[in-house]
Amino acid sequence: MSRHAGLDDGELVRRFLEGERWTFDALMERHEKRIHRLALGMLGDPDAADDIAQETFIRAFRALPSFEFRASFGTWLHRIAVNLCLSRLRSARRHPLVALGDVVRRLRTRRGQPERDLARKDLATRIERAVAALPPKQRAVFLMRHREGLDYGEIAAALQRSEGGVRANHFQALQKLKRELSDEDALDD
To answer: Do the beta carbons of residue 146 and residue 52 sit within 8 Å?
Structure first.
């Protein structure tokens, strides 16, 4: 069992601020998969997600001495990651689709009933494309809610927005996804 298993994020941050630098490794280990998943969902590119996750932790390490405990460490970290993703999307001025390599990997790793598996993979690809086409802020809210399982209050804190605004973005994202996916169904018939 690791020496940090019983410590919550707040205690690890306190110990870091007191000079126990190993605690940052523990924080990073706890949060790296969630941050990477969020970046991958927002950017659609595994390499870009790796870069964003790494940059998130570099910035967090540098800024941790000024951490004010107004939000949880995880919420604060999500805010850094989302801001980096939004910045990357603004500079690229495009909405990337699912990386072809990801789709191919998924196709190769699934076994079972070919027709059913193909339909499931097709639906997953369509959903990912529809999510990737959402405006960046709506995409961030959608991914934080559905992939990360955050509640509206946590998302609002991470994005430094009102809970009502987050709820509105989530509703708008769901409406756009519903329209996009039903439009594709109409075209398939």
So the answer is: no
